[in-house]
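TOKENISED FOLD:
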Amino acid sequence: MDLMGFGLLGFAGAQPNLLRVLTAVVAIALGSVGTFAIFYGLNLLVERFPRPWKDRLLPWVYMGPAVLMLTAYLVLPTLQTLYISFFDNRSEKFVGLKNYVFALTNPDMIIAFRNNLLWLVLVSGLSVGLGLIIAVLVDRVKYEAAAKSLIFLPMAISFVGASVIWRFIYAFKPAGSDQIGLLNAVRQTVGLDPLGWLIERDGLLEPLWSGLGVENLTPLPTLLPLNTLALIAIMIWLQTGFCMVLLSAAVKGIPKDVIEAARIDGANEFQIFRRIIIPMIMPTITVVTTTVVVAVLKVFDIVYVMTGGNLDTDVIASRMIKEMFNFRNFGRGSAIATVLLIAVIPVMVTNIRRFTQQEANR
């Protein structure tokens, strides 16, 4: 037995990754079998009750475990976070609303709010807008399936994976060095200076035309820092395919007779798009937009991998992680998490109301 134990320990030490995979497989298998056994057993138990009681209890057989999991892993942690947000960094001394004052007035938090607003407006607007335009256009091409597959492909990549890919695209070396980043290699080829896409945080457009011999022109001020825009572009690249697929399904649901009748009446393609297609798929546009908005409000991975939130690229979620785990200030981190939750709630309520209205109109 001792030899067997030492052998297992040696195997575990030599093959840690294999051991993790085996553990995951066993956990998935046991979890699936256990879940089936729970539902099957509860169903047999409910079948023994009289008919009226069975009809009342059966929905809870399927909803009960989900409600318990939701309560244990969402509701209770949320209440605990709210409680901690009223205490100091060690969760010992009650400080009232001090942490919320910090979350709403600290200069670094103001930058995070500004960046989140930029993410919110640009990602949701451009992702849904591009997705809608592409959905309408690919509906008319011969190789529709292939085109949709290529545009949807980024959705198969995780945020972290996409960030690693775009790090190589944005890679920067000083002028005079061979550029390994795709964008700077292109700029160097056409005679422009390489640009630190993830470094430039000034609200100026001047870096974009650096090397053209027009440096004496007065730079145009803007509130859109280049490094934050570079991060936003990644999210747009990821979300456009998602928006396109859902909106394409909605466009295909429009009766062909309506489109043909509009053409017969003399409407051009732009008028059909603006006056028929958009109004008829507006419920889908609303759902897609709110889904993207929620994803943007919670964005963290891209910022963390690309810049770590440095150079004024922080968003609310990345700032929360810094306060919670880097600075070990649990009160401030919990307050920021609560602010983020409050920001998401109106969007979710709007989405639920829209869904309820759609179901009522069917």
